[in-house]
Write a structure and sequence with these properties.
With 180 residues, this protein is an alpha+beta fold. The protein has one domain: 2,3-Dihydroxybiphenyl 1,2-Dioxygenase, domain 1, CATH 3.10.180.10. The protein has helices at 19-30, 86-95, 156-174, and strands spanning 8-15, 33-39, 43-49, 54-60, 75-82, 99-102, 113-116, 122-126. The protein has an 8-stranded mixed β-sheet with strand order 2-3-4-1-5-8-7-6. A hairpin with a 5-residue loop joins strand 7 and strand 8. Helix 1 (19-30) crosses helix 3. The chain is globular, with a radius of gyration of 18 Å.
């Protein structure tokens, strides 16, 4: 066993119907910062950060891509742990009853090696962090996973629609209430 086997929660993934509307909510309501948009083989979505933890807001493209939750599932999809040694950590989690579901468990540079815990909750382990996350904030050995902000032009309309919805909602909240 390696000297350090503590995983650090640095990633939370939500499965939602409209990632841009949900991202706009968390940007407006919680002050999170947008890091990147993605259009991958499994999902499309937006990554936000509070400066330490990455919040992935995803719409999965198929039931298979959703890794057991179904593509229409809405809720917390999985948690991600930044680990020092993903091969060793993978052995430890499996020895403790986790079930491996995807990713190469023997890759020391592994990213999002997914497992389910004893309750069937999906979690992943990674050798490096997610966009906008930090490994050990405030410590001398801190590692920051910087990612230059990136927006994809193909999502301009969806992003604009979400922003307009929140602008209209804020404008409505500012309207004076009629006295009775």
């Amino acid at each position: 066993m390696t000297a350090q086997t503590k995983g650090r929660i640095r990633h939370i993934a939500l499965s939602v119907e409209d990632p841009w509307e949900t991202a706009e909510f968390y940007k407006q309501a919680m002050g999170l910062e947008e890091v990147i948009e993605l259009d991958g083989p499994l999902a499309e979505g937006v990554f936000l950060t509070d400066g330490v933890v990455n919040l992935a807001i995803l719409k999965f493209k198929s039931d298979e891509a959703a890794q057991g939750t179904g593509k229409d599932y809405v809720g917390i999809h999985h948690l991600g742990f930044w680990c020092d040694d993903v091969v060793e950590q993978g052995k430890i989690v499996r020895d403790n009853g986790a079930t491996w579901i995807m990713g190469d468990p023997n890759n020391p540079h592994g990213y999002e090696i997914k497992h389910t815990d004893l309750n069937g909750i999906i979690f992943d382990i990674a050798a490096h962090g997610w966009a906008g996350s930090q490994k050990n904030p405030g410590e001398a050995d801190n590692v920051v996973h910087r990612q230059p902000p990136r927006r994809l032009a193909k999502f301009d309309e969806r992003r604009a629609r979400a922003q307009a919805k929140y602008a209209a909602m804020r404008a409505k909240e500012k309207e004076p209430v009629a006295a009775e």
